[in-house]
């Protein structure tokens, strides 16, 4: 009788362990993926207001036509806000290569409008968290505390970047 109870107890513990693993492993597999510098390269847009993962392709493209963040292979960063006429309204560009440590991208950015320089060497940092290959969550760490979701745009850097096109927006 003791042997039967002992075997039943072992089977019960094994079943509990199996159930526990099957309920926690899916949770662990949904954890945010590790972010590498190469994951950042490309053209991104942001959500309209805070963290939002439910944007469809049409909404992402609409936002890509209004505001983009360009992250170059050397980790230089540009951000461009487009005016209604499709021309640049504001253009920010990092003064040099940005640093990337512990999922934080830090840059010194100079911002220009069509008419003048708005700020010079303004320090900006973003904490980034990868959701998937085309989506990241972002939090500013200095200045105004802003959180957004970043979505990858379909366009290419060479077709969008004033640095790559040697354009002047002033």
Description of the molecule:
- By secondary structure, this protein is of the alpha+beta class.
- The protein has 2 domains: 31 residues; 129 residues, Calycin beta-barrel core domain (Lipocalin, Beta Barrel), CATH 2.40.128.20.
- Helix content is 28%, strand content 38%.
- It has 5 helices and 9 strands; from the N terminus they run H-H-E-H-E-E-E-E-E-E-E-E-H-H.
- Strands 1-2-3-4-6-7-8-9 form an 8-stranded antiparallel beta barrel.
- The protein starts with a helix and ends in a 5-residue tail after the last helix.
- The relative contact order is 0.17.
- The N terminus is likely disordered.
Topology summary:
Elements: H1 2-29, H2 37-40, E1 42-46, H3 57-64, E2 67-71, E3 77-82, E4 88-94, E5 99-101, E6 104-113, E7 117-132, E8 135-140, E9 147-152, H4 157-160, H5 162-165
Antiparallel strand pairs: 1-2, 1-9, 2-3, 3-4, 4-6, 5-6, 6-7, 7-8, 8-9
Q: Give me the secondary-structure category.
A: alpha+beta
Oligomeric state as shown: single chain
What is the CA-CA span between the terminal residues?
A: 89 Å
Number of domains: 2
If classified by CATH, what would the architecture of the largest domain be? Beta Barrel
CATH superfamily of the largest domain: Calycin beta-barrel core domain
Counting H and I runs of at least 4 residues, what is the number of helices?
A: 5
* Main sheet summary: 8 strands, antiparallel, barrel
CATH class assignment of the largest domain = Mainly Beta
Q: In order across it, which strands form the biggest sheet?
A: 1-2-3-4-6-7-8-9
Strand segment count: 9
Radius of gyration: 23 Å
| Rounded mean pLDDT score | 80
Q: Approximately how much beta-strand content do the residues carry?
A: 35-45%
Shape: globular
User: Low-confidence stretches at least 5 residues in length (pLDDT < 50)?
Assistant: 1-31
Element string (H = helix, E = strand): HHEHEEEEEEEEHH
CATH topology heading of the largest domain = Lipocalin
The portion of residues assigned to helices is 25-40%
